[in-house]
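call fold(seq) -> tokens
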Amino acid sequence: MLAHVLVVEDDDKIAAPLVRTLEREDYEVHRVAEGQAGLDHLARGEVDLLLLDLGLPDLDGLDVCRRARESGFAGGIIILTARDGELDRVVGLDVGADDYLAKPFSLAELLARTRALLRRSGGSPSPAPRESAPATPANTLRVDVAARRIWVGEVELAATSKEFDVLALLDATRGAVVSREQLINDVWDENWYGSTKTLDATIGRLRQKLDEAGAPAAITTARGVGFRLENTTDA
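ret:
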């Protein structure tokens, strides 16, 4: 199945070559020029990757990113923007973006980051209504690495690509501490030079999702070292 890329960009001079390049790479591409139109398209549950400009005519792109995550969109998000300050970059990642490219950017670099993000996310579409897992005990947290899915009992937990990767690393050695350095190096690749606050924001979102789902496990902090995933009830 072709990966579905949604481009939310109001500048025709940027959007047109971007769409042509993506289509040449055999992606299915849909482009809109306004944030609300992008959110409406995401709501249909067809998108694997969102390329999102921040300077939109109706909504700030950061608000679009935040609302997309709050509505359950679990696909990849790459922010495209002329705002290249570290603060804007950190804020964008903290509200749920997976990557950030400052304009002007090369199409070759964007394609490389697109391929990398789709590989990490498995290229799976954003979830429609959640389906039930195979019968599992109600009091279980299960991270299916092969399918890139998280289950709490029989309910699937929606997670972004980065959230899944962090939880999968913690789950692989449940009960043991995983250092901040390992999490950053393994989840954010060698090209990552951003603030470590992005890891803290990702951990914060995971903690909230696990708590709201009633998961029998929680992420605790080993101060000055890293994080561990601990069972909170007897399995």
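The helical segments are 12-24, 35-42, 61-70, 86-94, 107-121, 161-172, 180-187, 197-212.
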